[in-house]
Give the backbone structure.
Amino acid sequence: MKNLLCEIERNIALVTVNRPKSLNALNPETLTELIALFQQLAEKEELVGVIFTGSGDKAFVAGADISDMQGYDVFAGREFGRLGHRAMDAVASLPVPVIAAVNGFALGGGCELALACDIRICSDNAKFGQPEVNLGVIPGFGGTQRLPRLVGTGQALELMLTGDMIDAQEASRIGLVNRVVAQDELLAHCFGIMEKIAQKGPIAIKLCKEAVASGIEMDLARACRNEVDLFGVCFASEDQNEGMKAFLEKRQAKFKGC
Ligand code: CAA
């Protein structure tokens, strides 16, 4: 891979977009690599989760690559949008949790990439925005859909219609990020969350993510029936037996992920 770095330690993958000269902008090559990488990660049985970040201390991802998009016609624009959506979906549909460690600018496609992750933690210098209207386009990698679902239509539309950037504190206030931490503590903080997740039953972790991701697309009654089914599925696992037995025996559970 030319534009992404991936290191796996204690079954936690750290994925870094590595195009610092263009503030980690997403070009077609990077998006294609991202899809292939997440397909590989999805097949890793032991994987606890992924932490996603950007290279350098200035940007997470400053958006889709404008120098690439500039010459597109309608067909190329649609094709690029499709590719971006496939990449965001590859992140969102990974069976294990993905944390965005937002270490600077998360604009346009960069904000959309953070939105495709399950949890967003940012550094105090982070800046968020959907500045596409400044370029004569609309958000094209899921921003018009995932942003209002996360922060509500009013906040999402203000960001999309003004193109304004907001700082880390404001992103936290509107619920775009879970937490703001000092930049030099960002990765350690995200690893800390993953280490905590690693102690839990892996099947329950995956089913939690599935229940939320599939349920959000349904009406409440169907989503609750879906939850009941997935809750039931937990009882087919050894992890459920071990987790409840360990509680009653007042000891730490030893989950096996089966
Ligand atoms: N695409 C391509 N190159 C980019 C880029 C992008 N999205 N963002 C930054 N760069 C490049 C700059 O062109 C510059 O390159 P050169 O050194 O070769 O000139 C380099 O990164 C550094 O950027 P700046 O000099 O502009 O740095 P700055 O500190 O002055 O400003 C910034 C930082 C505010 C993030 C500014 O770079 C900026 O506004 N970038 C564009 C942000 C944007 O509009 N993103 C949305 C893209 S559209 C999109 O994403 C559509 C979609 O939904 C899919």
Summary: The domain at 202-248 is CATH 1.10.12.10 (Lyase 2-enoyl-coa Hydratase; Chain  A, domain 2). The first helix runs from residue 28 to 42.
